[in-house]
Amino acid sequence: MKIAVVEGDGIGHEVIPPVREMLAMLRPDIEFFEIEAGYGRWQRTGDAITDDDIAALRTADAILFGAITTPPAPDYQSVIVRIRKELDLYANIRPVKGSRADLIVVRENTEGLYSGIEKIEKDTACTVRCITRKGSERISRYACMLATRRRNLTIGHKANILKSDVFFRDICMEEAHKAGVWVRECYIDALCLDVLLHPEKYDIIVTTNLFGDILSDVAAYLVGGLGLLPSGNIGENHALFEPVHGSAPDISGQDIANPIAAMRSGSMLLAHLRDEPSAALIDQAIEAVLGKGIMTRDLGGTAGTRDFSRAVREELERLIRTG
Ligand code: ATP
């Protein structure tokens, strides 16, 4: 099995190596290969990622991705947005799981306000919000597939203002009815508040690209912050797993980043490759360490990234040994 590893920038260099080690412990058959991409690469070479890198990523069974700082050049496209588009990773799956919530944000990942159709003139800047039938059908089908295994589906939109969201909402509704899924709809702004007030109502939430990005950061509040949330970017032929958080330049290099979001992304990667038992071991090891009161600073603890990662690795070793 071939796994591409992209640490990226900032805390990507701190939270991804321990995940790679854990994957190697669980699956000695994994062959890793590294792709250097991001701001650091751009500073060194003028390219944050190349066509050859994208071609290499296509050869992987799955990609483990850290986070990237977008180069501050006006015409530079975000590396992760480019990868999502080129590998057609249309479904961004963001589970938000903790004692107060157990929901999954299903974010359309290739269009909407991330269409890349933008025009900047002297006195006007314009971004086209492009919603297609194909994009809306496939993301709502993915959400319905998850909802049939769970409880219900909520469509997050702003159809009272945006015609493009009337289009998106209607397609999602149609797919939900076809799939026989219990469905409700909610304006995205109201949903951002209600998910915090009544998280137990929500299960699968499907929404467009930018709304999904914002909603998942809002929902992170329910479970202890961005350091905990993993995600999967899934397409027909490729899949990439990354923490929801970014490169966090404000805390990078200080050994204080929480590696749990990255570790849980590793767990999602294994589950995607149909190794649910190994995925469950990573989750169990994290829970066991948290249960001992070992936590990073964002959760109120004192452990550094390295100490916390070592504790999870040792716990994982113990779980593997004891079968
Ligand atoms: P980007 O633009 O790449 O998303 P950003 O700095 O805008 O980067 P994040 O990197 O997601 O956004 O960081 C937002 C905040 O959350 C920062 O204050 C950061 O320190 C904090 N944060 C993010 N990830 C972690 C983590 N793993 N552990 C602790 N704090 C984190």
Topology readout:
Elements: E1 2-8, H1 12-26, E2 31-34, H2 39-45, H3 51-58, E3 62-67, H4 79-86, E4 91-97, E5 102-108, E6 118-120, E7 125-127, H5 133-149, E8 153-157, H6 163-179, E9 183-187, H7 188-197, E10 204-207, H8 209-220, E11 230-234, E12 239-243, H9 260-272, H10 276-291, H11 305-321
Parallel strand pairs: 1-2, 1-3, 3-12, 5-10, 8-9, 8-10
Antiparallel strand pairs: 4-5, 4-11, 6-7, 11-12
Helix pairs in contact: 1-9, 1-11, 5-6, 7-8, 9-10, 10-11
This protein binds adenosine-5'-triphosphate.
Residues 11, 67, 69, 226-227, 245-251, 257-258, 261, 298 line the site of adenosine-5'-triphosphate.
Structure in words:
The chain has 323 residues and is an alpha/beta fold. The protein has two domains: 1-88 and 239-323, Isopropylmalate Dehydrogenase (3-Layer(aba) Sandwich), CATH 3.40.718; 99-222, Isopropylmalate Dehydrogenase. 43% of the residues lie in helices and 19% in strands. It has helices at 12-26, 39-45, 51-58, 79-86, 133-149, 163-179, 188-197, 209-220, 260-272, 276-291, 305-321, and strands spanning 2-8, 31-34, 62-67, 91-97, 102-108, 118-120, 125-127, 153-157, 183-187, 204-207, 230-234, 239-243. The strands form two sheets. It has a ten-stranded mixed beta sheet, sandwiched between helices. It has a two-stranded antiparallel sheet with strand order 6-7. The model has no long low-confidence stretch (mean pLDDT 96). Adenosine-5'-triphosphate (ATP) binds next to loops.
- H/E series: EHEHHEHEEEEHEHEHEHEEHHH
Q: What structural class do you assign from the helix and strand content?
A: alpha/beta
Summarize model confidence as the mean pLDDT: 96
Amount of beta strand: 15-25%
Number of domains: 2
Unreliable stretches: none
The CATH homology group name of the largest domain: Isopropylmalate Dehydrogenase
Helix content: 40-55%
Continuous helix count: 11
| Structure summary, number of beta strands | 12
| Distinct small-molecule ligands in the complex | adenosine-5'-triphosphate
Shape: globular
Q: Biggest β-sheet, characterized?
A: 10 strands, mixed
Strand order of the largest sheet: 2-1-3-12-11-4-5-10-8-9
CATH topology of the largest domain, anyone?
A: Isopropylmalate Dehydrogenase
Q: What value does the Rg take, in angstroms? A: 19 Å
Query: Whole-Å distance between the termini?
Result: 23 Å
